[in-house]
Here is the input.
Amino acid sequence: MKKYILKRSLQSVVTICLVIFAVFMMLRMMPTSGYFTRDDYLNMTEEMRTVYLKNLGVLDPPLTQFKNFVTKLAQGDLGRSITVYPKLNISTILKEKIGYSAAFGLASMVISMGIGMPMGMLMARKKDKFIDHLGTGYAVIVRSIPSLIYLFLVQVWVSKIFNLPMLFYKNRPESWILPALSLSLSSIAWYAIWLRRFMVDEENREYIKFAKVKGFSQKYIMRKHVLRNAMLPIAIGIPSDLLLIISGSLIIENLYSIPGMGGLLISSIKQMDNNLVQILVLIYSSLSVIGVFLGDLLVVLVDPRIRLSESEG
Amino acid sequence: MKKTVVWLIVLTMLTSVLSGCSSKPGGKSEVSYEDVYYGAFSADYKTLNPYFLTSAAAYTIVGNSMDGLVENDKYGTVVPSLAKEWNNNEDYTVWTFKLREGVYWVDHLGNKTEYEVTADDFVEGIRYIADPKNGAKNFSTISKVIEGLYDYYWDLDDIDEGEDIGKTREEVLASFEETVGVKALDKYTVEYTLTSSTPFFLSYLIIELFYPMEKAFLDKVGEDYATSMDTMLYNGGYYISTWEMDKLIVLTKNEHYWDKDNITVKELNFQKVGDEITSLEMFQRGELTGCGVSADQLKALKGTEWEKYIFLKDKTTVNFWFTMNFQSKNQEFKTFVNNLNFRKALLHGLDRVKISAIYEPNDPEFFIRNTIIPEDTLYDPKGVDYTDYPNLKSIKENNPYDPAKAKEYMLKAVAELTNPDGTIKGLSPQKIDMGNIAEFESDAKLPVELVLATTTDPIETKKALLIAEMLKQNLGEENIKVLVGYAANSFQDEVFSPMHFDMVDDSYSFRFADPSANLARLTTDGSLNEGGYDIPEFDRLVEEASKENDIEKRYELFSQAEKYMLENVYLMPYMTGGGSYSMSKELPYQTPKGGFGLTRFKMKGAKIQNKPVTTEQYNELRELHEKEVQEKFGKGK
Here is the structure.
């Protein structure tokens, strides 16, 4: 087990380094005009643009730039944003933004697991009954209609009916309800539908039938065998979901004006804020790699039959 | 099941009660005024560093929290701000400003700091932008205005480049006071020495680049300057009391402000609202002071109780024009565009009203503009609008759209440039490669191919297709064939920089109170000459006009240059910017007005009603304002 963890950790580090290096070099291959807006082009002369780029340090050879980036990073300096928030420290930007996205992400995860999982279990138990159809209907609607439509309806109508604010305000707790709920609508359906599916699959297995014949109660079978096995495929994804809550949601954060991380990566790529892109890629790729790693470990905990390294098997 | 039905009934009742409760404006209650302005911004205000401003949202914040030497009043005239008086020498090259005494910078808590606003602060502001290391992007607007500034900047850059210019960076920095034309004569007197005579110099001073900066404070915060509310200082009517990135920014009245009696609204509260649907809904619920109304929303609001509140905002000085590529890689177009008759055919063949209707279906004629320099912006001492000068008046007033003329000119061009068998003189078939925009075989025969570059934005695409259809109909399918080319990523990289277009349009802003603001940039070497024309006659006229100090003569000469440009169709202006539909509780025409600069965003003197301004009220106030303007400036206007 220890050996496995060590090996995987090393692999993860190598992966992250490769991703960072590749992204860094690819950003340097982009045309430098991305650093300027159309207005800049009309206002600045060719020479002034060169001066500007030179002072940003982007005219140095890419490898020198990469070396500078790594040295600074090692000293804990994340650098400053270039175009998205000119001259602002990236650490300040992240400090302000991560909290919002993490809070809403976590709330939504709790809500969607708290509602989605019992819903899935209920649907599995009442398979082909009214409640199952209702749940399936919900899932089909939520997953097939473009989310923008019902998210808008929730924002405008639900806020009107319950007299809730249309935007998020830090000091008004009632304004947190709609965004957290909206963020969960689709994942509730995801948890419910997959848990139901795995449980129904599991219930048809021979060993369950055997347990039934042995006379175990339905409740006992469900809890001890069906649920535990059905949880397995879902559990793998939980750690990375949990870690990546900080990435935020583009649509919801925009709709409710939450100053979170959603859209930050996209806008930094669009505006060629290379410093910001690098740091975000570093963070997201590290979290994904760690998430997958933890997911594998979690599976061992949930299901003792699984061994991670052959030598111990 | 019964329970569900009961719940449904309860919900329905609740909805109707609540919607009945929501406040409906427009009652006959008495008008009172509010203390807080609730505004919205959609794009991020990226930075509030006064020298790097990019968006209107940021202009509003900085315009209200910082003052320069002068500002505009509600009639658009220049009035004293931090400078209480000024004078200039005879040829307008040396300007001296006497500052108001006892004005102090305040911090983000609204407390007076130890720093007084002195003449040095204005010198430091220029020193800051003059260092290439600080990267002030708009610097070129003023780099050639102040004596010595241009050389100072490039000396520093040469040194940074590692070139030996016989001086060290420190020596150049130390020479600032002697070489650059801005000096603090004493604590309250600042003097600017200019490179050439500039009678309109005052209009430069409302550009952020001339704003003061407290050096001692800058040294304290260093590179973090203006990245948060506590790393900047304020000397305007408001200070920033809350700044949550991408969320909320609150400006609170500065109790130490020199003109605090005219700060009528105590707090300006701007929050980020992601889209126009939300902002309209919030306005209707009374959560915002005003909101824009899009063309679609306008349709939806027709016939509702809200219709009576919708008004049309004034046009701006932003101008849209078509650029033609005189050096096109497309040989057929290149041959034709260098022929005046063909350019006239294009000029008369474009229906501006139809194009404008894409943006503003209800009143498209209102937005047509046929001149390069915007109307209602520049007035000579007699109050005559620059665009009403004899050279331009008829161009300004006559929409050139005329299909019959277009066809006539096209046939003339065809007769001059083609052989009887339809082949174009002097050309042979060739492959044309315009990168991502277009790639085709030119057969060196009629119809002439015209590559119209556009973006994948739905409105832009619609506009391009409309123009293509217009030209086909008005110039004849047998004569012209429009190829619409789409730039998918960067318009600058794919279209403008490599000149991969035959015709393209864009909007251009106007930056200070002189025709040279745009005309000097449109010369053969100018930065706005994106079509690569070569017009020595125009260059000569602009140069001559730039040297003239008498405003009337100056305008006369510039209008001659502009007339030359427009009559020879080197450029085709067609539409103004701005003028969107809006609803608001803020009374119009109370705050500083202007076509450019920062002070037009000031909320000085603003009045916010407790109910939305009706269209009727808006029009009454506009008439009143126009009457006042007329009385103020005399009959010329």
Summary: The two ends of chain A are 11 Å apart (CA to CA). Chain A touches chain B through 49 residues (CB under 8 Å). Chain A has a mean pLDDT of 88.
